[in-house]
Design brief:
127 residues, mainly alpha, 6 helices
């Protein structure tokens, strides 16, 4: 459920983090073990609290990580700016056609909005 909803597809973008948390909590005790939800939520919130204000809570190659060979060749893997600012990133390999619907970008955007800031805009993808 979490993996499916943190990757965009032809029909819909990834869920924003707040919406994902709502969906997971709505299924707590029915579809998901409450202890597992609590542990996952604690790790997720800790990572978000430690993230830089203008970047991802976790690098995309660590969060998505599949297929590994695509991530190994992705220019965002070693770049210091956020992955969505790199025109040649390999997001489409993960199922995200562009950064505007990617969970990594949506998470940073949501966190920045909560802080009254704006993250860098997504780059235009190169073919």
């Amino acid at each position: 459920f979490i993996i499916e909803n943190t990757t965009a597809n032809q029909i819909q973008p990834a869920l924003a983090p707040s919406r994902l948390l709502e969906e997971v909590n709505a299924r707590r005790g029915r579809q998901f073990d409450p202890a597992v939800v609590q542990a996952w939520q604690a790790v997720f919130e800790r990572q978000r609290a430690q993230a830089p204000a203008d970047g991802p809570f976790r690098p995309c190659h660590q969060f998505k990580g599949k297929p590994e060979e695509a991530c190994a060749a992705c220019p965002a893997r070693s770049a210091s700016p956020p992955c969505w600012t790199e025109p040649a990133v390999h997001c489409a390999i993960h199922g995200d056609p562009d950064c505007n619907g990617c969970f990594i970008y949506l998470e940073a955007l949501e966190r920045a909005n909560e802080a009254g800031q704006s993250p860098p805009e997504p780059a235009t993808r190169v073919a």
